[in-house]
Amino acid sequence: MQLYLFFADDAVGPESNNELYDHALHLAPDAGIGVVHDWYPLNKTQVNSLQALDLQNSRLKIPFMHIGECLHGVGSFQQSMFPQALALSSSWDVDLVYRVGRAIGTEARSIGIHACLSPVLDICRDSRWGRCQEDWGEDHILTSHMGVAYASGLSKNGSWGDSDAVVPVMKHFAAHGAPQSGLNAGPWMGYGNREVRENLLVPFKAAIDLGGVRGVMMSYNEIDDVPSAVNPMLYDALADWGYDGFIIADDKGMSELEYVHMVADSPTDTIGQWFNAGGMIEYYDYPLETYMNYSWRTGTRRFRSVWKAGS
């Protein structure tokens, strides 16, 4: 059974009495929670309490992974805030960027976060896009150096198990920074796979090889009419690089396969394409257990990657 990804602010708090956590257990009665996202408590105590509650109720006894936003600071109002990536990149100071990553990684882990959705390694080629401030610029070499420094700081040079380090989750894979008409989910306006491989993928490979990255978030866009979430070229690139971390869809990245890209005709078809492409973690798009159970019962989709995704 696929573990449930849960928005933890819905589950805990001074007035919650864990009602919505119980609702999550109803959706995945034996499995429990697999991933908690976007929850920023004051300290680890709340996280540990939810972890203990989950382990008590889960048949699988697998601790959940706590993922947070760490774009230029931990995504809360309690931690330090630093300049956006574009401003840091303008310094050309990789040591400074490393130290910023170290500070953010330490603060994230201090409140129980295990993995951070950073660095953003998109190459911004269209200022209409509106997210260029999240990037390190329009040059893939500069982005590579800055991305490696930031990821190395978050991960403490790959020491993910230390109490002051987190797992970096690089995004958005790939070719997300030059969309048609500047639209966030628009097709990539490029010149084919050669440019993707020789320019846009370079920072991602560098972050895996040198930055301690062990998470990849897929992008919303298409490359040559193939959505990134199910694009064989991108999964083949990860395999060629020897990548052994996890792969997560962006928020609504799954449902957009059906409603935006129109390459899937149902939620079941969408989930099947995602797993068979090599995807592992789904966001909040669908109650995943319902569709997996349906597919197993009816035989409409053979999930050859389910066991790999859950391992």
From TrEMBL:
A molecular-function term among this protein's GO annotations? beta-glucosidase activity
Q: What Gene3D superfamilies has UniProt attached to this entry?
A: Glycoside hydrolase, family 3, N-terminal domain
Glycoside hydrolase family 3 N-terminal domain: residues covered: 44-266
Instruction: Identify the keywords attached in UniProt to this record, alphabetized.
Output: Glycoprotein, Hydrolase
GO biological process per UniProt: glucan catabolic process
InterPro entries named in the record: Cellulose_Degrad_GH3, GH, Glyco_hydro_3_N, Glyco_hydro_3_N_sf
The record's section on Pfam families has: Glyco_hydro_3
Q: Which family does it belong to?
A: Belongs to the glycosyl hydrolase 3 family.
Q: What is this protein called?
A: Glycoside hydrolase family 3 N-terminal domain-containing protein
